[in-house]
Write a structure and sequence with these properties.
Layout (H helix, E strand, L loop, with lengths): L2 E5 L5 E7 L2 E8 L2 H4 L7 H22 L9 E7 L3 H18 L3 E5 H7 L11 E6 L4 E8 L2 E7 L5 H11 L7 H8 L24 H12 L6 H27 L3 E5 L6 H13 L3 E3 L10 H13 L36
Length: 346
């Protein structure tokens, strides 16, 4: 089945074509330049820019896949969680295409897309432990198969990516900040400043990043002193430590042999090195999607949507956007257990 997928959950406008051979095309239009002057994402501007770019992005995805809408056999779109105005743009366009062409339609949870993104590149046996870490989400899940997810832990406050962005803003590094901090930290002193690592009394698999953000602010108010690159490296090392510790505790407790790290922060080079080393010491395999599939993209939505369509799921065109959609909620239609292998050859 050849699926056209659309993703507009936040500030990236994305479309992809996915079929049994894998990803035929994946196009992403970034809004970084639009929001940089404000130091963060402005929801109204995000939705307006989706309206301007959604059709050209879809057209480009079709051209790069060497197909037309006549060749598409199903449509998938993100319907939550995310910014509701942004979600509505992609969701309504997807439903319009499905209605006009008489195609089956399915809504996909954005978080499910991230958790399954690794399967775009390689097979990973279920169950695996999924660390989803991005600007809006930092959570741990057991991924038991397509449509089978159990949350083990989550952030109590900021997401890790949000903490990176806020730190970059305090340091005057611009937006988005995670990438800049990663670059500045490469050859810097990670031990220059001992930022606190949060230890939670309850919820051994939960995360908290508000404390380190406050510690950075206090350090700067006190006059700082270390080079900005060393501040970035020290801050990043603390964030990475706080991501690794609960993840390894969960892996030990559950006995899962594989950890999959996904979401925008999974592109962080230090996290990739440290998590891989820590996993190796524990005899665990650690896998990351390729960089293009770490950040928001429609290919991951296409994979998840295609698996659901092949499993018989069909969503009504009345499906609405849900800004706080939890993962694991099956809104309509069955998922075929036989597809839980992650095989994409059908």
């Amino acid at each position: 089945m050849r699926v056209l997928a659309i993703e507009t959950s936040c500030d990236d406008t994305a479309a992809a074509v996915v079929d049994g051979g894998g990803v035929r095309s994946s196009v992403v239009a970034s809004q970084d330049a639009v929001h940089a002057r404000y130091g963060g994402i402005v929801p109204e501007l995000a939705s307006r820019n989706h309206v301007l770019t959604i059709v050209p992005v879809i057209e480009r995805a079709l051209v790069e896949a060497s197909v037309t809408l006549d060749d598409v056999e199903g449509v998938a779109a993100t319907y939550g969680p995310g910014l509701v105005g942004s979600l509505l743009v992609g969701l309504q366009v997807a439903k319009g295409i499905a209605f006009d062409r008489g195609l089956p339609f399915v809504g996909v949870n954005h978080l499910e897309g991230h958790l399954l993104a690794i399967l775009l590149d390689r097979p990973v046996p279920f169950p695996y432990l999924g660390l989803l870490v991005s600007g809006g989400h930092t959570s741990l899940y057991v991924v038991g198969g397509i449509g089978t997810y159990r949350q083990l832990g989550r952030t109590r406050d900021d997401a890790a990516g949000e903490a990176f962005d806020k730190a970059a803003k305090m340091l005057g590094l611009g937006f988005p900040g995670g990438r800049v901090i990663d670059q500045l930290a490469v050859n810097a002193n990670r031990a220059a400043i001992r930022f606190p690592r949060a230890t939670l009394k309850h919820g051994e698999y939960d995360f908290s990043f508000s404390g380190i953000k406050t510690a950075l602010r206090q350090y700067l108010l006190d006059g700082g002193g270390a080079p900005v690159s060393d501040v970035c490296a020290s801050f990043q090392e603390a964030i990475v430590d706080m991501l690794i510790a609960p993840t390894l505790r969960a892996a030990r407790a559950l006995g899962t042999p594989t950890i999959v790290v996904s979401g925008g922060v999974s592109a962080n080079t230090r996290l990739r090195v440290r998590m891989t080393e820590a996993g190796s010491e524990e005899g665990l395999e650690v896998a990351f999607p390729r960089f293009a599939y770490c950040t928001d993209n429609a290919a991951m939505i296409g994979y998840a949507g295609r698996m659901r369509l092949l499993g018989g799921q069909r969503d009504a065109l009345t499906l609405n956007a849900e800004a706080t959609l939890p993962i694991g909620v099956s809104h309509t239609g069955p998922t075929n257990p036989a597809l839980a292998s992650g095989d994409r050859s059908t």
